[in-house]
Amino acid sequence: MKKWMKILLLLLVLVSLTQIDFKGSTNLKEAHPIIFKTGLSVDANREFADKILSLDNAYMAKRINLEDNTKLAAIQMYPTSFDNGEVKFVVKFNMNAFSRDEVAELKRRIAYEFGIMAKLQLEKTDELAVYLQDKLKFVEQLVTRGEAHALYEQLDDDTKQEITYDTFSSVAEKTRNSLSGAISVAPLYSQAYEKYKNLPDHYDLFYRVNADGEPKLTVKLVVNPENGKVFGIF
Q: Which one, of 113, 108, 74, lies nearest residue 92 by Cα?
């Protein structure tokens, strides 16, 4: 009886280690630690980790040379510690999606590229805060009754070549008509990106639009830091 109990316990341990989901496949995950030295306080490190994890998935996939960005779903990354001037992450890889050689390379690239992205966020912290506050008025006018032509002139020249004034004013009008009551706008957060897709270095600025105190939509501005003009509105 004791022998069978030992065998049963061993089987249970093996099942736990391989995370069998009993749906026809074995979901084996490997966890690896990665540390980013920031020199920041605990609270600042928490905010920093949130910023890194909220970066665009396609952007992160490109930075780590992951051609199939859908494979990001097979990578889990979460912070575990924020003290001693550093942020510690655990990165889990679904071994059904990657070979061991791929995991080794991805781990190296995540540590390197996320470190660069982290440094960029830190270097641009003050400038991002200025832009986030500066463009607040633009969003307020966009969702209320600001003069459309004045807003259109704040778009980057390349963007104006893609979007006519008539199209811009029409979209702005539809956005305004979708809101009712007392409108207010609050800045949420901002991110710095290096050259990506068809854009040069740029900033993403996020704002929450409330109507009668209730959140209605989130507006993202993509801004050109070279001239302060708006690349896009989402």
A: 74
At the topology level of CATH, where does 19-123 sit? GMP Synthetase; Chain A, domain 3 (3.30.300)
User: Which residues lie closer than 8 Å to 136 by C-beta, 6 or more apart?
Assistant: 185, 187, 207
Rounded to whole angstroms, how far apart are CA atoms 197 and 231? 13
Token pair of 117 as six digits? 């992205």
Report pLDDT for 27.
61
How many angstroms separate the CA atoms of 127 and 191, rounded?
10
> In DSSP terms, which residues pair with 221 in a beta bridge?
205, 233
> pTM of the prediction?
0.74
Could you tell me the CA-to-CA distances from 130 to 49, 105, 127, 171, 186 in Å, in that order? 21, 37, 5, 27, 14
Residue 144, token pair as written in the block = 């209320």
Q: Choose the CATH number for 126-233 among 1.10.472.10, 3.40.50.1970, 3.10.450.590, 3.40.50.1000.
A: 3.10.450.590
CATH 3.30.300 domain span(s) along the chain: 19-123
- Residue with token string 């912070």: 79
Encode pLDDT of 34-51 as tens digits: 988 888 889 988 888 887
- CATH 3.10.450.590 in the chain is located at 126-233
**Helices 100-123 and 125-134 sit at what angle, rounded to 10 degrees?**
70
Core vs surface per residue 48-60: b (16+ CB within 10 A) or e: bbebbeebeeebb
- Categorize the per-residue pLDDT at 151 as very low, low, confident or very high, splitting at 50, 70 and 90: very high
